[in-house]
Amino acid sequence: MSDVEREREGWRKKATEVARGVVAPRAAQIDATGEFAWDIVDVFAQHGFLSLIIPKEYGGMDGDITSFCMVAEEMAIYCASSSLLVIVQAVGTMPLVLGGTEELKKRYLPKLAKEKGLICFCITEPDAGSDAASIRTKALLKDDHYLLNGRKCFITNGGVSDLYTVFAFTHAEKKMEGISGFVIEKGTLGLSVGKTEEKMGIRGSNTTEVILEDVKVPISNRIGEEGVGWWLMMRTLNRSRPAIGAQAVGLAQGALNYLIQHGQEKGWFKRNGGTLGVESTLADMAVEIEAARALVYKAARMMDEKVKGTPVQMFSAMSKFFASDIAMKVTTDAVQILQWEGLTRSHPLERMMRDAKVIQIFEGTNQIQRMVVAHTLLKAK
Ligand SMILES: Cc1cc2nc3c(=O)[nH]c(=O)nc-3n(C[C@H](O)[C@H](O)[C@H](O)COP(=O)(O)OP(=O)(O)OC[C@H]3O[C@@H](n4cnc5c(N)ncnc54)[C@H](O)[C@@H]3O)c2cc1C
Predict the structure, then answer these.
(1) H or E stretch including 330?
(2) Alpha helices of 19-79 — where are they, by DSSP H?
């Protein structure tokens, strides 16, 4: 095993221990109450899961995308909301790591790494979801600062973050090339949190509106040059979609593990005087999960190895939609196998099924991921 592989396995091992010891006992309660689990935030911060992709020189863990996926997968075996905590922190941080000036990185990355701060990622607006280029939020340059106005919605951790990575038009007439990214501190005048969404799944994740009314942001808080916002967004999403895929793989694996372990203990597979005929379904589930896992780690490896000319955005999109479709199928089949028992909160399977639905929608819907794949295929011809 190489040093890099040893390091990755170290992250997986650490994540497995925390997932089993700390996350698993809290998962059902987090879902039932819809609470934001600050206790889990503390434990994740202590273990470096919330500073995983921050480079060492800024106090972070210097983990690669494969390690990021491993941690997301292990957490999701027990709790998709806790897995999303790790993912969103990396998504909010990524634009800063990829495109921030040295001064901006030194100002904010150590704060996230050492002071356990949370950060969110704000693109979506009421009239701009899949088509992110139609955002309406504007950043108007005035002397030494910008004035930001707009309304973001469905922002994960919008109500609990210390920092906000916000995308806005600095030059709307330039379309995609007119978008810029900004880091905004919680408490900045004019930045407020609107409605909190009551979701069917991933209920422990905080999802809110973020409202910007004449928010004064210093020029030095712009991430990179004016107009590189689209590039930052896409590069960030290319890196995070495999982690969303890994979250889906973990969720599906968790459902299968539960089904097998508890099914065998309680004789679920031998009801009504015979087997329920579920063996082939169990085999299908196992194969589908392994196939999704292979695709997720292939996409992650492509990111880490940075081989020029590889269609990383296509593999990233494939891993997200394939793994989350598999998670939806596996969790639905698992509920079906348990029949009425599967519908009750006595078992985690109905929660897992609700969580899988959300993964098919966020971070770019699965329809949009299919479009990314098709466009890449057609462009290559
Ligand atoms: C739980 C949750 C957390 C989220 N967290 C964040 C976050 O932290 N930050 C953030 O910025 N956003 C976040 N989002 C927003 C999320 O990324 C968007 O919901 C998603 O991109 C889809 O946008 P929309 O909901 O506006 O749907 P729309 O774009 O309005 O799409 C509606 C439907 O039409 C389909 N569709 C749209 N365009 C096409 C097309 N051209 N071809 C075929 N089908 C199409 C879509 O697939 C979808 O089924 C979150 C969403 C959820 C549900």
Answers:
(1) helix 312-338
(2) 27-33, 38-46, 65-76
Mean pLDDT, range 300-309, rounded to an integer: 90
Tokens of 36: 């934001």
Range 350-381 burial, b when 16+ CB lie within 10 A, else e:
bbbbbbbbbbbebbbbbebbeebbeebeeeee
Query: Using CA atoms, how far apart are residues 101 and 162, in angstroms rounded to an integer?
Result: 20
| pTM of the predicted protein model | 0.96
- For the CA of 205, the nearest atom of ligand 1: 1
Decide if 363 is catalytic: yes
Report the SS3 class of residue 323: helix
Nearest CA to ligand 1 atom 41: 368
DSSP result, 165-199? EEEEESSGGGGGGGEEEEEEETT-TTEEEEEEP--
Distance 34 CA to ligand 1 centre (A): 22
* Residue 218: how many other CB atoms lie within 10 Å: 12
Distance from residue 367's CA to the centre of ligand 1 (Å): 10
Instruction: Find residue 92's DSSP bridge partners.
Output: none
Residue bearing tokens 């609107």: 194
Cβ atoms of residues 12 and 72 within 8 Å: no
- Euclidean distance between CA atoms 30 and 33, whole angstroms: 5
Token pair in block for residue 148: 């930001």
* Separation CA 275–CA 350 (nearest Å): 22
- What are the two backbone dihedrals, phi and then psi, of residue 174, each rounded to the nearest 5 degrees? -85, 5
pLDDT in tens, 236-282: 999 999 999 999 999 999 999 999 998 888 777 776 555 556 888 89
Write out the DSSP string of 206-245.
-EEEEEEEEEEEEGGGEESSTT-HHHHHHHHHHHHHHHHH
Q: How far apart are CA 119 and CA 238, in angstroms?
A: 19
